[in-house]
Structure formats: structure tokens, C-alpha cells
Write a structure and sequence with these properties.
Helices cover 77% and strands 0% of the residues. It is an all-alpha fold.
């Protein structure tokens, strides 16, 4: 195995470790959205509790997708979209919002999507 191949393999393993950690966080976060702890926050947002459940489903689905090789890039892109909404919500709809964590998760999920862009492109028609 060449040095370049070994470095690429180590980088791939490191990226999978990051993906697994991010997936674990989103499972935790998604499950928390089904509890009563965030009802007040979603009342403050003003769109109704359906948004809380939808966000929980999207986070859990994205977490599952992050650990499925053909879907990991698309899942990261979807989670980035959820985090764009979270950052905007924390900045503009929640009094004393905290946009830092969603912004960090946005950056991480965008990085994963970029680094796994080959899996996204493979899903396009005629790209297999």
C-alpha cells in the first residue's frame, strides 16, 4: 500500500468516526424533541408543536443516513438544511437564542457533505 493510499484510508476512517459521533448527537437531539423539555421553546417559535416532531424525525433520519455509506453525503446535506433553520430560529425567533451550537453543527455537516460529495453525485441519474 502506498503512503498516499494509507493517508487516504486513515482520513476515511477519521471521517467515519466524526460521522458516527455527529449521528449519535442527532439521535440524542431528535429523541429529546419528542419529550416535554422543548415544548416551551417551540411555543415561543410560534409554528406549533408539529415543527418539533418534524425536526425530531428529520434529525433521527439524518443520523441514520450518516452511517449508511451510499446515503451519508445526502444525509449530511439534509442535516445542514435543518441546522440552517435552527440557526435562523435561534437568531430571529427565540428570545435569548443560542445559535452557536447549531452553527457548529451546520459547519460540521457541510464539511461531511463536501467530503462525501461522491456519494451524493452517485445518487444522480446516469452517474453510477
Amino acid at each position: 500500500m502506498s503512503d498516499r493510499t494509507a493517508v487516504a484510508r486513515v482520513g476515511d476512517v477519521a471521517l467515519w468516526v466524526v460521522q458516527a459521533a455527529v449521528a449519535a448527537y442527532f439521535v440524542y437531539s431528535g429523541v429529546m424533541l419528542f419529550g416535554d423539555g422543548l415544548v416551551g421553546k417551540f411555543e415561543e417559535i410560534g409554528f406549533g408543536q408539529w415543527l418539533r416532531y418534524l425536526t425530531g424525525v428529520l434529525e433521527i433520519a439524518g443520523a441514520i443516513g450518516l452511517v449508511i455509506p451510499p446515503l451519508c453525503g445526502l444525509a449530511a446535506l439534509g442535516l445542514a438544511g435543518v441546522m440552517v433553520g435552527a440557526v435562523a430560529t435561534e437568531l430571529f425567533l427565540v428570545e435569548n437564542g443560542g445559535p452557536v451550537l447549531p452553527a457548529i453543527l451546520l459547519a460540521i455537516t457541510l464539511a461531511i457533505a463536501w467530503l462525501r460529495r461522491d456519494t451524493i453525485l452517485a445518487l444522480l441519474p446516469g452517474r453510477r
